[in-house]
Amino acid sequence: MNHLSQNKAKTFWNWFQDNQQTIYNLQTVTSKNRQYISFWITKHLNYYSTGVDFVIAFPNKPNTVATLTITANGNPDYFKAVTNLIDQAPKIKNWAFEAFIQPTEDLELFSEERDHPFIFQDITIKASQAKFLPIGCNETGDKFDIIVYLKNYNIHCNTHNWKEALYIILQSLFGEKFVYQRLNFVQLAQYPDDDSELIKLYLLENYIDHFRSEFSKE
């Protein structure tokens, strides 16, 4: 890490430490205040690097650990910026800091629909209720194009926000690097009247692994 990047990382963590309690209380404030605080986190993070983003996982119980994950949103050009920032993270009570969105270990949560909904401002998505269909892959069978179907997707809403939310969910299910390595194009759609042909989204990695295994035999 060069000296300038090191100083910018230090500036971010100094600001975070000064405001960590306000950020920790983010889940309990009004939607307007949540957007305001999120704006300032993003602003200070973008001063360090415009290619990194954040996700916060809040605890179910008060005074337990919240996790701030620094993500490159699957862009390998910023993987190093992510790891460098986390390498300089301070120790703060009730906070853990993580590089990259990691895959979910307990997929039974989704098969049994016990997963918690993801809430992004005015968008609420439960991953266990999302389904997909493959629509193509590259010549080597490495990267896939898929359609993701959501029950409450509305084509008239802000599609950019929905896509951002969906990519965070995909990364939470399968890990940031899997999404970069295996997905080329993701299209959003409303649930059809007949969803019998659709595949549960949490089975995407299994589907791709099976497809690639069969593809390699040809």
Please give a handful of descriptors for the protein shown.
about 220 residues; alpha/beta; three-stranded mixed sheet; globular
Description:
- The protein has 218 residues and is an alpha/beta fold.
- It is 41% helix and 21% strand.
- The chain has a 4-stranded mixed beta sheet. Strands 1-2-3 form a 3-stranded mixed beta sheet, with helices on one face.
- β1 (53-57) and β2 form a beta hairpin.
Spatial arrangement of strands, main beta sheet? 8-7-6-9
Spatial gap, N to C terminus = 45 Å
Given the C-alpha coordinates, what overall shape results?
A: globular
> What is the residue-mean pLDDT, rounded to a whole number?
87
Strand content: 15-25%
Give the helix level as a range of percent.
Answer: 40-55%
Low-confidence stretches: none
Number of helices: 7
The count of DSSP E runs of length 2 or more, i.e. the number of strands, is 9
Put the structure in a nutshell.
The protein has 218 residues and is α/β, with parallel strands linked by helices. The chain contains seven helices and nine strands. A hairpin with a 2-residue loop joins strand 4 (118-120) and strand 5.
